[in-house]
Design a protein that fits this description.
about 325 residues; Cytochrome Bc1 Complex, Chain A, domain 1; three-stranded antiparallel sheet; 11 strands
């Protein structure tokens, strides 16, 4: 159970759990709110806001997702209060002297990260804007200046655009969230680069990924989990075709929230992007056509049916086709 209250005008969700207190300050801004020419600005602000936190005995982190930016902490009540105070203070006075250094850190982070086969999916579905930007590197970093950072912070990192969650039955004494006034920003609408669905494309990796946009309900999560187990049984244990089969519901990609086992859902949701299946196949797997009937069946849950058979024009090196 959880209850809702406010801290300095910020909606606050309290849900007691055993163990050290955990808390998260979430802003409704992420990569889907950026433009291709400014990709990386939200991630850059997250790094700048956390620069002043030296290594400590308690755990803290920051994450930048598709439509939210999350500052989280686990520790004692005093450590939670101190961390949240420091994040709000940093957002009010970001260390611009660190701008170029943090850019270099982000470029290093990008170059050393391994890319998942799922990361190419957003651009095929949404195009080179909005939610499709998750498929791109942070190419805008080199063009971002101090004024860009200040303008973005003042627009998005505000009291009305934030929510706080805590694994506690009370608000710790002395907690203040000194954030500027603003407005609650809507989740960017999902664009489409597909003339019709179901569709498929070939990219050359030894994997097959299926994705659908479905209502954000428990049934969708349960179904994708059951599908994962069934595909593991049939593709690996029985057929020996696949080494791994995973499912990855991504609630924040379209709707603006991510469910966490340690926190209540911070924003209302209606739809979620579900990369239902990602399987890595052995070289002797053969034609992908052997699993296309299942792909079509999975897609029928939400995707529009189409009898079109013509290739689609996409800003990518290969041409997908309608199923």
């Amino acid at each position: 159970m959880y209850r809702q209250t406010e801290v300095d005008g910020v909606p606050t969700l309290l849900s007691p759990m055993p163990g050290p207190m955990a808390a998260g300050l979430i802003f409704r801004v992420g990569r889907a709110d950026e433009t291709l020419a400014r990709t990386g600005i939200t991630h850059l602000i997250e790094h700048l806001a956390l620069h002043g936190h030296a290594p400590t005995d308690y755990h803290f982190n920051g994450t930048t997702g598709a439509v939210n930016t999350h500052f989280l902490i686990q520790g004692s009540e005093s450590e939670v209060v101190g961390f949240l105070h420091a994040v709000c203070a940093a957002l009010a006075d970001l260390p611009m002297s660190r701008l170029e250094t943090e850019k270099a850190i982000l470029r290093t982070e990008e170059s050393s990260a391994s890319r998942s086969v799922n990361e190419s999916m957003p651009v095929w579905r949404y195009g080179a804007a909005g939610h499709g930007l998750l498929s791109y590197p942070e190419w805008g970093l080199h063009r971002i200046g101090p004024q860009d950072v200040l303008d973005w912070t003042r627009t998005w990192f505000t009291r009305e655009n934030a929510v706080l969650w805590m694994t506690s039955d009370h608000v710790p004494a002395g907690l203040r969230l000194t954030l500027p006034e603003g407005r609650r920003m809507p989740v960017p609408a999902a664009t489409s680069a597909l003339p019709a669905t179901p569709a498929f494309y070939a990219e050359g990796s030894k994997a097959v990924v299926m994705e659908a946009t479905v209502r954000h309900r428990g049934a969708a999560t349960i179904y994708s989990g059951v599908l994962e187990r069934e595909l593991f049984r049939s593709l690996r244990q029985e057929g020996g075709f696949s080494y791994t089969t995973t499912q990855a519901p991504t609630a924040d990609a379209v709707t603006g929230t991510r469910r966490s086992p340690r926190s209540p859902t911070p924003y209302p949701t209606s739809r979620m992007r579900c990369s239902a299946v990602s399987s890595t196949f052995s070289p002797n797997f053969g034609s992908v056509s052997s699993i296309r009937p299942m792909s079509r069946q999975c897609a029928e849950s939400d995707w529009r049916r189409s009898t079109t058979r013509t290739p689609m024009r996409m800003p990518c090196p290969v041409t997908p086709r309608i199923c």
